[in-house]
Design brief:
mainly beta; 2 helices
Length: 224
C-alpha cells in the first residue's frame, strides 16, 4: 500500500504489520490511521533499539501541514494552500471544523475541498485544495444521518472543534452551504476529549480518549 502525499485525519495509511505507529498517527484494529492532516513519512527503526516485534518495521509519522501564509515553502502543498478559488460545488466532499452546535444544526467552517465526481477541484493524487479563506457551511439536524432522524440529538453527534468530513448537498442561502453527513464514510474524523486529548474511533458512534480511557459520543465517519 503506497503512502499518500498528503493525509487527512481518519485516513487509512497501512497495516500495523508493515509499520509502527508514530506521532500524528493512531492504531486501531491492526491498522494505522492518520490523526493529523499532513505529510506522512517513514523512519527506519534503529538496529540497536529494535525489538523482535519492531526490528524490520519503519515508524510512520505525520508532519502537520504548514500555516496558510504567503511564505509557505514551494511545492504541491504550498500550491494547494495558496489557491484562492477553491469554492465547493454541489456533490463535493469537504473537510471542515465545527464552529457552533445548536439544537437543529451544526455550523462548520469548510477548510479543504476534496472535490467530487466530474469536478475539477481535486489536485493530482486526489488530495484536495486547502481554502485560502474559511467557507461557512451548515449540517441541519435532518442531514446528520439517514436513519432514525427523529431521534437525532445534534449535541451527541458533534462538538465545537471537531474535524468533520461532509458532502455539499445545496448552495444553501447567501451565507452558508448546506452539508450532509448522512453516509457511513461521513461525519467526525478527528475529535478531542473534554480533557484535551486527541481521541480515536471505536465504533460508529463513539470516540475513546487514549489517556483516560473515557468514551464520548460522536457521529463517527467510517475510515477509508
Amino acid at each position: 500500500m503506497t503512502l499518500p502525499t498528503l493525509a487527512f485525519p481518519g485516513q487509512l495509511l497501512g497495516p500495523s504489520s508493515t509499520y509502527n505507529s508514530g506521532p500524528g498517527t493512531h492504531l486501531h484494529a491492526s491498522n494505522i490511521y492518520a490523526s493529523l492532516p499532513g505529510r506522512p513519512t517513514t523512519t527506519p527503526s534503529p538496529p540497536s533499539t529494535a525489538s523482535k516485534s519492531h526490528s524490520s518495521k519503519p515508524t510512520l509519522t505525520i508532519f502537520r501541514l504548514p500555516s496558510t501564509s504567503a511564505t509557505a515553502s514551494p511545492g504541491p502543498v504550498s500550491e494547494r494552500i495558496s489557491n484562492t478559488n477553491a469554492l465547493p460545488r454541489v456533490g463535493d466532499t469537504v473537510l471542515g471544523r465545527v464552529t457552533r452546535c445548536m439544537t437543529r444544526q451544526v455550523n462548520v467552517g469548510i477548510l479543504i475541498v476534496m472535490g467530487g465526481e466530474g469536478h475539477g477541484n481535486v489536485k493530482e493524487g486526489g488530495e484536495g485544495i486547502v481554502c485560502a479563506h474559511e467557507v461557512q457551511g451548515v449540517v441541519r439536524r435532518e442531514d446528520v444521518r439517514s436513519t432514525e432522524k427523529e431521534k437525532i440529538v445534534v449535541g451527541e453527534g458533534f462538538r465545537v472543534g471537531d474535524l468533520v468530513r461532509a458532502v455539499v448537498i445545496s448552495l444553501g442561502d447567501q451565507s452558508n452551504y448546506y452539508l450532509t453527513t448522512a453516509k457511513n464514510e461521513l461525519g467526525v474524523i478527528m475529535a478531542k476529549s473534554e480533557n484535551g486529548n486527541t481521541m480515536y474511533p471505536i465504533s460508529w458512534k463513539e470516540f475513546k480518549d487514549p489517556v483516560t480511557g473515557e468514551t464520548e459520543m460522536r457521529k463517527v465517519a467510517k475510515p477509508f
